[in-house]
Amino acid sequence: MKTPFAASDTRSRRRLIALVAALVVIVVLAGVGVYGLLTGPPTSDRGPDRGGGTRPAPVVTAPGEPTPTGTPSLPALPEVEASDDPETFARNVATALLAWDTASGLMPLDYSSVVLAVGDPSGAEQAGLASDVATYLPTREAWLELRQYATAQHLTIEDAFVPEAWDTAVEQAQPGQLAPGTVAYTIEGTRHREGVWNDEQVTSEHPVAFTVFIVCAPAYETCHLLRLSQLDNPLR
Asked: Which of 79, 98, 124, 232 is the most buried (most CB within 10 A)?
């Protein structure tokens, strides 16, 4: 934590410690959630690209609705840029997943909808993915607290690679257990946060690592997100 000021008394020190604690997103998901990936593609021969299958629509709150005259409009939600290259897509997902700004007027569900929008069109992993994404974002209560300090976050990526553990999983998988084009990428980088404390800018940096499970060609023309590992508990 780098602060441009020092606390003047015990009470201020305690408040500063509370802020630092609030800046850490508590991850409650225990486990990687790979089980769903091993069930393979839907058995129906009418895949989503052929008109079959349904996909639950991501939840989007008020920002997508017209705003009353005289009410400032909220900023447009970012998007996960599509790609047919697995590593590029994995990086795009990671960047969007850890990018948010409490001062934007948006809420955690708005940011989660961005990631859910690039989920597997079959919908088979959508419920699990929604649970995964929720652990990467502050709760509503924490969000409202962080908003008081105009807290924002973004990720810089240092490395992205297919972990050896995934290669082992693929080797041990039975035929048909994994959809064609399914792959895992472990992302390593630094999470940057900034906010305002007593009218002074406060910043923090923390190394992070996690794994994204995606499916690309030949299953789909562009890549889609299946699941996420627990934050800081990636496949190696």
From this structure: 98
d(CA 111, CA 78): 8
CA distance 44 to 53: 8
**Distance between alpha carbon 223 and the CA centroid of its chain, in Å?**
16
Q: What distance in Å separates the CA atoms of residue 34 and residue 212, rounded to the nearest whole number?
A: 11
Query: What is the model's pTM?
Result: 0.72
Query: What is residue 78's predicted lDDT score, i.e. its pLDDT?
Result: 82
Q: Of 13-22, 105-114, 190-199, 206-215, give the lowest mean pLDDT range.
A: 13-22
Q: Which residues contact 167 (CB under 8 A, 6 or more apart)?
A: none
Residue bearing tokens 């996960």: 80
The whole-angstrom separation of Cα 97 and Cα 208 is 12
Residue 62 makes CB contacts below 8 A (sequence gap 6+) with 74
Number of Cβ atoms within 10 Å of the Cβ of 144: 12
Question: For the chain, how big is the Rg over CA atoms in Å?
Answer: 20
> Can you tell me the distance from the alpha carbon of 90 to that of 20, in angstroms, rounded to the nearest whole number?
29
